[in-house]
């Protein structure tokens, strides 16, 4: 699942989990028994073997209550007089238990543990194992009128006549299946499902499995029945009740129907998603040597404002924000990148997460890491024209390094039990760091061996269908030994275990004595390192490149062992040769060169940057800038290194430089002197890029060209009269008819132009943009997102800004926030105040409450003023104590950053321009 979740504090998560398991009293229907459970895990004395679920809905009549009946076949594993499963929000109207002969078994009563969300069925006899199958049948009522965008809930759209049309959809990951029907709601419990759903005759139902049949009912309704699903966990159960329409393609050998669904007015934007799905699915099946296990898969586009999850990999019925899979005839290659990668992410889950389910949420990274990695790496196979492998470094790799550099970050494998602490596991560690670590092993073993290991992993575990990290380690180890890809003394368990069970990213320090290179490792902390150094250490694959030796530019020259003070390695080099380490970012670590080595690399980069691969230039920029910020020094050398950017024309180095420069600008935005100097420097570096690419979008250009032009406009427009004039002209065009389509370059120009006009004109444009968003001719989801961002950039309505940020995904939000703070000069305090206002008028189970902490934690990275910090503290107190603690940690790091960096950066910039 592609979700927005922020870095979790390992220590605090552990504390919350420990506190959460304090005994709680079961709340019974009419009685209090005092029964206590010592864990949030089900006792698992019983397990389900099959569900038959029937729902009756009236969404077509705008009635949002529904009734349900679930029959759960159960095996007893241990003698017990209780059946314990999950249920929340459902009103149970009848409950009965039958044995394998169909005879009723006496039930004394049923109770609810509200805290643990348990439904406890107290049986009038002792149920014995191996005594046959029991069937628990429950009738219940529930409602989709909920505003947390979880469980079975409602969405809507306005049709061409302006009539509001409603639909019902599901979002069960991680623990919300239980809020829609009683079930055993844990990821390691897999079984089959027969699902039938009644709706109006003018509506239809889609679910995980293919359609089996439709039966007409009285009262203008019909009952849709689906085939039995594969064995799967509850969080993948899904259905859609709507009047959506679709585009479809049926593949043969074997047969597979691929369809994309949306509201009728948006269906013409779905063709590309169907084609992308087809190409990715076949590439994935071939790569892993495994066929997709059903005969159909649906993509469903949900209105962005009604879908906070981003996308969800439900087996056979994948859901997305509509802006992520819509593609119109005027959209460019950049939008294709977005569609392919998000479809690729969710389709990879059909194997990693669906076919192989995590035994518990501790192993969530086995789902999300593979999905994040292969959305790029399989996407590069299915869509080679998009150059997606290169984009891994500018996307997940950068995100992971930023997320994994704090004192409180958790390891990849992390145990917790409660609803809220499980939700916090859906963070950059699960998605991005784990993808980087898996990618590192791909290069360390060689792709052929790694691919073989994953094929073993799928084949060896798919029958059981439930996995933990050691299962992956076993399969990769088998392939590595067969192909002799590791030293005999090493195993995958040792190597990968050092990465999955320890928090943080390594910093490898390199010094040189002739041809002898000396290496040490430590944990990298961006700000406020602890007084006592960490003892973490890893098995690190060290790669390098020289002008005459690239044999080890992606493969490990050697494995740097943990718990060793220093490692020596000899690299024979000519007198004028330089060596770069981790030159393609294949290893998940930063490199700190001794100053003489960094100065020599800086000289060479400015003399002829093309002597280094674009990936190598990228790594040098990112490591040098971040290490300088963590120490508050060496900016003179770093600025000289960045000076070469005036000659850079490749997307990858510029994308990473842009990310870093924007962060610097956001952190010094309230200091007029250094902000002005930094802007002058940025303009100087980016002006040649702006001159090269100009302002006009060119049809047929690559995504890299689109993004380079956008970067140039964002960084250098203020120093160019022609760009400023173009930006003002673009803004004035909004006073007339708003276009139905905007490119990213238009977006960048308009954002800058909006800041060149006065408040009155921005207020007038706000009305024009608001009207355009409601225009039926504007159906493209990405265009709506651009218009929403422009509304946010006016700085007039902080509520609009909040809504815009809330809609964005994990990878997009930091960049958007930086642009709003630096370019559009939107006050962070206004955004925080707007969230506080929204929370004060919404129910505590709203999507704003659910996702509030992640927004606050992201915003806290940019709080530099005392007033901003106080606002964040105030609103954080509305949430659990861990939110306050994490924000305090971030604010402390921000203060240290300011104290450590502002003065040396100012001095270095002043000397740069004096030189």
UniProtKB/TrEMBL annotation:
Q: SUPFAM superfamilies, from UniProt?
A: Leukotriene A4 hydrolase N-terminal domain, Metalloproteases ('zincins'), catalytic domain
Annotated active site residues, numbered on this chain, are: 346
What EC number is given for this enzyme?
A: 3.4.11.-
Annotated Peptidase M1 membrane alanine aminopeptidase domain ranges read 272-495
Q: Which InterPro entries is this protein grouped with?
A: Aminopeptidase_N-like_N, Aminopeptidase_N-like_N_sf, ERAP1-like_C_dom, M1_APN-typ, Peptidase_M1, Peptidase_M1_aminopeptidases, Peptidase_M1_dom, Peptidase_M4/M1_CTD_sf
Q: Which residues form the signal peptide?
A: 1-28
The cofactors named for this UniProt entry are: Zn(2+)
- Where is it localised? Cell membrane; Membrane
| Topological relation to the membrane, as annotated | Lipid-anchor; GPI-anchor; Single-pass type II membrane protein
Residue stretches making up the Aminopeptidase N-like N-terminal domain: 47-236
- At what residues does the UniProt record annotate the site feature described as Transition state stabilizer? 431
**Residues reported to bind Zn(2+):** 345, 349, 368
Q: Which GO terms describe its biological process?
A: peptide catabolic process; proteolysis
Q: Does the keyword RNA-binding apply?
A: no
GO CC annotations?
A: cytoplasm; extracellular space; plasma membrane; side of membrane
- Cite the cofactor comment: Binds 1 zinc ion per subunit.
Broad EC category? hydrolase
Gene3D superfamilies xref list: 1.25.50.20, 2.60.40.1910, Neutral Protease Domain 2 (1.10.390.10), tricorn interacting facor f3 domain (2.60.40.1730)
**Residue ranges constituting the ERAP1-like C-terminal domain according to the UniProt record:** 579-735
- The answer to whether UniProt assigns keyword Cell membrane to this entry is no
* One of the record's GO molecular function terms: peptide binding
Could you list this entry's UniProt keywords, alphabetically sorted: Aminopeptidase, Glycoprotein, GPI-anchor, Hydrolase, Lipoprotein, Membrane, Metal-binding, Metalloprotease, Protease, Signal, Signal-anchor, Transmembrane, Transmembrane helix, Zinc
Tell me the Pfam families matching this sequence. ERAP1_C, Peptidase_M1, Peptidase_M1_N
Family according to the record: Belongs to the peptidase M1 family.
Q: What is this protein called?
A: Aminopeptidase
Instruction: Specify the species.
Output: Anopheles epiroticus
Origin organism lineage: Eukaryota, Metazoa, Ecdysozoa, Arthropoda, Hexapoda
């Amino acid at each position: 699942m592609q979700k927005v979740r922020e870095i979790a504090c390992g220590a605090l998560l552990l504390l919350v989990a420990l506190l959460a398991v304090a005994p709680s009293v079961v709340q019974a229907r009419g009685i209090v028994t005092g029964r206590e459970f010592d864990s949030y895990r089900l006792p698992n004395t019983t397990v389900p073997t099959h569900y038959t679920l029937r729902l009756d809905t009236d969404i077509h009549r705008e009635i949002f209550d529904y009734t349900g009946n679930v029959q759960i076949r159960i095996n007893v594993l241990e003698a017990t007089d209780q059946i314990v499963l999950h249920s929340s929000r459902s009103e149970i109207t009848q409950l009965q238990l039958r044995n394998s002969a169909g005879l009723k078994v006496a039930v004394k009563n049923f109770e609810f543990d509200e805290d643990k969300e348990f439904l406890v069925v107290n049986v009038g006899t002792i149920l014995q194992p191996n005594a046959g199958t029991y069937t628990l049948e429950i009738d219940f009522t529930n409602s989709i009128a909920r505003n947390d965008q979880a469980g079975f809930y409602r969405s809507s759209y306005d049709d061409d006549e302006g009539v509001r049309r409603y639909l019902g959809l599901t979002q069960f990951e991680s623990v919300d299946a239980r809020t829609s029907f009683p079930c055993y709601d844990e990821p390691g419990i897999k079984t089959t499902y027969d699902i039938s759903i009644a709706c109006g005759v003018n509506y239809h139902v889609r679910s995980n499995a293919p359609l089996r049949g439709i039966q007409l009912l009285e009262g203008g309704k019909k009952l849709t029945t689906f085939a039995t699903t594969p064995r799967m966990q509850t969080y993948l159960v899904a259905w859609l009740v709507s009047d959506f329409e679709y585009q479809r393609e049926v593949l043969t050998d074997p047969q597979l129907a691929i369809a994309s669904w949306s509201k009728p007015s948006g269906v013409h934007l779905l063709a590309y998603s169907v084609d992308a799905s087809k190409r990715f699915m076949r590439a994935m099946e071939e790569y892993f040597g495994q066929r997709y296990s059903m005969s159909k898969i649906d993509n469903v586009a949900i209105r962005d404002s009604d879908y906070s999850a981003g996308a969800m990999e439900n087996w056979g019925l994948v859901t997305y924000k509509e802006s992520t899979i819509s593609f119109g005839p005027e959209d460019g290659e950049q939008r294709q990148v977005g569609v392919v990668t998000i479809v690729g992410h969710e389709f990879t889950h059909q194997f990693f997460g669906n076919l192989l389910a995590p035994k518990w949420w501790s192993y969530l990274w086995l789902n999300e890491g593979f999905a994040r990695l292969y959305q790029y790496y399989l996407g590069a196979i299915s869509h080679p024209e998009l150059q997606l492998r290169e984009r891994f470094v500018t996307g997940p790799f950068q995100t992971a390094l930023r997320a994994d550099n704090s004192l409180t970050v958790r390891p990849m494998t992390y145990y917790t039990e409660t609803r809220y602490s499980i939700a916090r596991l859906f963070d950059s560690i699960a998605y991005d760091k784990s993808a980087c670590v898996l990618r590192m092993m791909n290069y360390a073993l060689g792709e052929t061996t790694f691919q073989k290991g994953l094929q073993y992993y799928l084949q060896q575990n798919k029958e059981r269908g439930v996995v933990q990290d050691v299962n992956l380690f076993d399969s990769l180890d088998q392939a590595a030994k067969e192909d002799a890809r590791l030293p005999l003394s090493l195993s995958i368990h040792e190597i990968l275990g050092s990465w999955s069970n320890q928090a943080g990213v390594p910093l490898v320090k390199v010094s040189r004595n002739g041809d002898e290179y000396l290496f040490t490792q430590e944990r990298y902390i961006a700000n406020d390192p602890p007084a006592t150094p960490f003892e973490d250490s890893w098995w690190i694959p060290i790669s390098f490149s020289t002008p005459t030796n690239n044999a080890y530019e992606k493969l490990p020259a050697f494995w740097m062992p943990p718990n060793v003070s220093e490692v020596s390695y000899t690299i024979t080099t000519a007198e004028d040769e330089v060596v770069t380490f981790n030159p393609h970012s294949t290893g998940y670590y930063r490199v700190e060169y001794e100053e003489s080595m960094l100065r020599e690399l800086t000289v060479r980069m400015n003399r002829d940057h093309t002597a280094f691969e674009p990936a190598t230039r990228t790594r040098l920029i990112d490591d040098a800038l971040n290490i300088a910020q963590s120490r508050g020094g060496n900016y003179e050398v770093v600025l000289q290194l960045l000076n070469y950017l005036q000659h850079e024309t490749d997307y990858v180095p510029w994308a990473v430089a842009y990310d870093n420069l924007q962060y610097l600008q956001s952190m010094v935005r309230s200091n007029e002197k250094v902000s002005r100097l930094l802007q002058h420097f940025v303009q100087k570096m980016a002006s040649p890029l702006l001159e090269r690419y100009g302002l006009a979008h060119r049809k047929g250009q690559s995504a890299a060209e689109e993004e380079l032009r956008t970067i140039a406009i964002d960084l250098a427009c203020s120093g160019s009269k022609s760009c400023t004039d173009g930006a003002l002209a673009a803004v004035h065009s909004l006073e007339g008819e708003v276009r139905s389509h905007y490119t990213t370059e238009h977006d960048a120009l308009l954002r800058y132009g909006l800041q060149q006009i006065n408040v009155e004109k921005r207020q007038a444009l706000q009305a024009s943009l608001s009207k355009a968003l409601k225009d039926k001719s504007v159906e493209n989801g990405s265009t709506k997102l651009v218009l929403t961002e422009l509304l946010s950039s006016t700085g007039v309505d902080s509520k609009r800004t909040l809504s815009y940020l809330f809609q964005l995904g994990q990878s997009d939000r930091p960049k958007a926030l930086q642009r709003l703070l630096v370019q559009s000069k939107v006050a962070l305090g206004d955004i925080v105040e707007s969230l506080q206002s929204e929370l004060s008028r919404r129910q505590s189970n709203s999507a704003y409450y659910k996702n509030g902490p992640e927004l606050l934690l992201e915003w806290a990275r940019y709080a530099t003023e005392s007033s901003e910090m106080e606002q964040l503290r105030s609103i954080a107190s509305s949430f659990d104590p861990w939110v306050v603690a994490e924000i305090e940690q971030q604010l402390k790091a921000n203060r240290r950053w300011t104290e450590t960096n502002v003065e040396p950066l100012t001095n270095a910039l002043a000397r740069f321009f004096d030189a």
